[in-house]
Amino acid sequence: MAHEDGTAPSPGRGGQRPLAVVAAAVVREGRLLVVSKRAAPDVFYLPGGKPGPGEGPLETLVRELDEELGVEPLEPRLLARVEAVAALEGVPLRLTVFGARFEGEPRPAAELADLRWITGRESGIRLSPALRDHVLPLLRRRGALPS
Fold first, then answer.
1. What is the pLDDT of residues 12-43, one digit of tens each?
2. Domain 25-141 in this protein, CATH class
3. Which residues, in sequence order, are bridge partners of residue 28?
4. How far apart are CA 117 and CA 120, in angstroms?
5. CA 2/CA 5 separation, integer angstroms
6. Cβ distance 74 to 98 under 8 Å?
7. Considering only CA atoms, which of 23, 27, 35, 94 is closest in space to residue 61?
8. What is the pLDDT of residues 59-91, one digit of tens each?
9. 3-state SS, one letter per residue, for 39-60
10. Cβ–Cβ contacts within 10 Å for residue 60, how many?
């Protein structure tokens, strides 16, 4: 469970260096934007990705949202830092989540298979552990998503 400040305890997986990922939590009309990848089209995540060499979190966010969805984040703000287990790789994950918005309609590109706007209460949709266990509860507590 995430701490009140959005951080979560380490998964404690043998001292392995966590996989660093930056993502955006974009909520419109009580629904969160999630995406799936071609490598695992049945698992949904927040849009984002891994930093490139020398790239800071905001630079990563801007690049990934442009590559994956063709949008630019507006007014990004740090929402949470979460530690969990990466859904595909099964290794420790350190996720930096920014709350953001954007204009226009996102379209899946690059390695993305699909995108959806969810409340987080849908049945039959598989969510990544970090999203399911940390980000959704945080967004509900803050009133961004329905309880």
1. 445 668 899 999 999 999 999 999 999 899 99
2. alpha beta
3. 31
4. 9
5. 8
6. no
7. 23
8. 999 999 999 999 999 999 999 999 998 888 888
9. CEEEEEECCEECCCCCCCHHHH
10. 21
